[in-house]
Amino acid sequence: MVADLVQTTLATFAFALFLLPPGYLMGLASNVLGMRSRSAAERILFSVALSIAVTPIVAVLLIRFCSYKIALAVFLLLAVISMSTLIRQFPLPSGFFSGIRRSTWILLGMMLAWFLLVQLSLADLQIGHRLYVNYVAYDHGVRVPLVAAAARGVPPLNPFYGLGKIPVLRYFYYWYVVCALPMQLFGLSAKACLDASVFWSGLGLAAAIPLFLKYFFGETEHLRKKSVIGIALLAVTGLDLLPYAARVHHYHAFLPDMEWWDPNQITSWLGSLLWVPHHVASLTACMVGLLVLSTIDEDNPLRQTVWAAVLSGIAFASAAGLSVYVTFSFAVFLILLALQTLIQKRIKTFIAYIATGAFALLLSFPYLLDLISKQASERFAYFAIRDYPNAIDLLVELGLRNHLLLEVAKLPILLFVYVLEFGFFALIMVLCLRRDWRNPFPLSRQHRMAWMLFAVCLLTLSILKSDTSGSNDLGFRGMLVVQFVLLMWAAPIVHDVFFGRETASQSGLGAPWIKISLIGTLVLGVAGSTFQLFALRCYAPLADEGKTGLRAEQFMGAPGFGERTYWLREGFSRLNELTFSNTLVQYNPVRPEVLIFQLYSGRQAGMGDPSCGSAFGGNIEKCSKAFPYFATVFNVPDVVRTWSVDSFCDSFQVNVLVATDADPVWNDPNSWVWIRPSLVANPSMRALPCGSTSLSSGSPQKKQ
Asked: What is the pLDDT of residue 704?
């Protein structure tokens, strides 16, 4: 646990080298939004947000076409230039700290609280010789190997498919490349870098809020207070706690994530940041791109338009490689926005938009080739109304079996579920619509753009689904765009209702029921986020003690798994120190704990799971043919005792076999687990060299 806290802290500071200078220097060079004349605080905000939009695509292209050494050298050079520029333009005056405003201290306190929350949430919780992961390890057990794969090269290769030539990763991998930068520079672990990236993803999102309020929505009065409110509202989710409690009461089982009451969840901000920081980073890149794009107008000087198109194109290219799901719904909006400018005969603006899209596609071309490197049977997007299956099942039980009527019933059900999922933010939407409808003055271009963004994305995600991952990730993650618009609307409304009585009265927000409703939904929203953090953190130790009822998962293992997890981490940590980054390490691919193996093993696997992770690239048929051999070597001791294990390893290029006390071969005293010398051995794990190739031979790559 201490190792996690220390390494994640170091990684958090290391990220500053890559997620501050690029945006800062790009802002100065382009002078977009007049950055050269802005205060130091505003430049820092813009540097973080713009770096999230710039660093991913720059890092990927530099490493892909040059090397990690050149990429690191470029980023270090940018850091040196940025530091010298800052020192020259903003010398530290006497009494500097006494001149900092209260709102700035509040924001710094919120940043410290966010840092501590990330640390205490994601570090492995150690109780004696028992170790408990946060439940987000269910996803991070896949993402940590992807970070390690990115550290081995770009484009990354599928870390779960090692049968012959390893295929290129068919997935959005830009965030993992960003995470690999501090890995390469300081030798930090993949898990620590991924955990630290959660902090920076949240920081980028928070930095975008005041920028959007000021430059997109024109909120100049009480901007600092509204910015603090907007960032604080990231702790608010919908009314999920109510249906979650009802579900737990009905099934007498403690679900590890509050969002699981709805199969088509709209994830809380904190949940999205902890589970999928790359999707939130994609949202930030999209919003930064839109913010810059919104400055393009017919009367702008050519230089300003070119810079805006270039920066927006870079941001959208990064966004696509960070999350195709978030970018997809946003791209639908951009296409309609471009068509609208054409209809309005704003030809110069239309041309600038087209140039932006073309530049983004040009930068993304190598990545798009990776995505189409394997023909997929799954549909990325198809027409289907977003539904709540439990409600449909209930209607069927009540006797409604007409297919057409069931389809029609999805619409009122969807509206009701949206009210529960959005909660406080659904009320904000109603209030914003009411205010803008009564406004006698025409809305600004940016306000109309926000309504268009909200409506297009909400409609798109309500009638389209994706099945590429077995769940509707398009609906889960694309909804972040809708959530961001609601967040931007919420900050000034909350300020006016609670701190600006006269303004609230003028805009029709002064009624008592409005304040009461906002307070009620805010309390439930904060309580929901708080409970979600508790459930994700505490589910593992509670499950280990058998206090969760019927378990919703098996990936952590049978009760008593805390001690095994401790020894698995200890064993894999030593194995990573003793092997090279190109060593192929094979564990039992059919055990439920395979995600725990992946979380701590920093090495390529021959078969990472029963399907070899072929959804990320690779031939599933080849995997199916090899599966019986991999399953047998760990699970059928009577058969494997007659094998030449070295021949098996040579056939599949395996260098190390890892057995645990949960594998059947562990209990056979005559199996390969006990008759071969071990590299690493502890009470729950043994790692043994295998095959005719010595571990010390081959490419002596840096141990990571």
From this structure: 44
Compute the distance between CA of residue 268 and CA of residue 246 in angstroms, rounded to an integer: 19
pTM of the model: 0.94
CA angle 189, 190, 194 (to 5 degrees): 120
Peptide bond into 155 cis (omega under 30): yes
Q: Which amino acid is at 616?
A: F
- How much is the pLDDT for 360? 96
Which residues have a Cβ under 8 Å from the Cβ of 501 and sit 6 or more positions away?
Answer: 510
Position 495 scores a pLDDT of 93
| 21-30 vs 68-89: helix crossing angle, rounded to 10 | 60
Strand 656-660: give its sheet, edge to edge: 585-586, 656-660, 685-689, 680-682
Q: Determine which helix (DSSP H) or strand (DSSP E) holds 570, and give its type and residue range.
A: helix 561-578
The answer to whether 321 and 56 have CB atoms below 8 angstroms apart is yes
Please enumerate in sequence order all residues whose Cβ is within 8 A of that of 451, keeping only pairs 6 or more positions apart, or say none. 436, 443
Cβ-proximal residues to 631 (8 Å cutoff; 6+ apart), any chain: 589, 590, 610
Contact 461, 478 (CB under 8 A): yes
Q: Hey, what are 9's tokens?
A: 């802290």
Residues 6+ apart with CB under 8 A from 86: 24, 40
Q: How is residue 414 written in tokens?
A: 């969807």
The closest alpha carbon to 498, from 102, 229, 213, belongs to: 229
What single string gives the DSSP state of each residue in 40-71?
HHHHHHHHHHHHHHHHHHHHHHHHHHT-HHHH
Q: Which residues contact 338 (CB under 8 A, 6 or more apart)?
A: 350, 353, 354, 357
| Cα torsion angle, 368, 374, 378, 379, sign | positive
Identify whether the C-beta of residue 562 lies closer than 8 Å to the C-beta of residue 132.
yes
pLDDT digits (tens, 9 = 90+) for 46-87: 999 999 999 999 999 999 999 999 999 999 999 999 988 877
C-alpha 26/C-alpha 288 separation (Å) is 13
Question: Which ranges of 66-101 would DSSP assign to H, the alpha helix?
Answer: 68-89
Residues in contact with 343: Cβ distance below 8 Å, sequence separation at least 6, in sequence order: none
Q: CA–CA distance from 677 to each of 108, 209, 262, 373, 656 (Å)? A: 53, 57, 50, 41, 11
Instruction: Specify the residue for token string 């304040």.
Output: 515
With H, G, I as helix, E, B as strand and everything else as coil, classify residue 31: coil
Alpha-carbon distance of 576 to 600, in angstroms, equals 9
Task: State the pLDDT at residue 93.
Answer: 58
Interacting residues of 169 by C-beta distance below 8 A, sequence separation 6+: 146, 149, 155, 156, 157, 158, 370, 616, 617
Helix (H, G, I), strand (E, B) or coil at 500: coil
Residues paired with 253 in a beta bridge:
549
Q: Spell out the domain ranges in the chain.
A: 561-689
Helix (H) or strand (E) holding 660: strand 656-660
How far apart are alpha carbons 403 and 102 in whole angstroms? 59
* Residue 660 φ/ψ, nearest 5 degrees: -125, 170
d(CA 607, CA 586): 7
**Spans of the chain, pLDDT less than 50:** 696-704
Closest CA relative to residue 475, chosen from 383, 563, 413, 542: 383
pLDDT of residue 124: 95
The 10 Å CB-count burial string (b at 16+, else e) for 599-633 is bbbbbbbbbbbebbbbbbbbeeeebeebbeebebb
Q: Is 168 helix (H, G, I), strand (E, B) or coil?
A: strand
Strands 656-660 and 585-586: parallel
Element (H, E) at 656: strand 656-660
**Triad 576, 582, 586: Cα angle to 5°:** 65
User: Whose structure tokens read 């710094």?
Assistant: 108
The residue count of the chain comes to 704
Find the largest Cα–Cα distance for the chain.
85
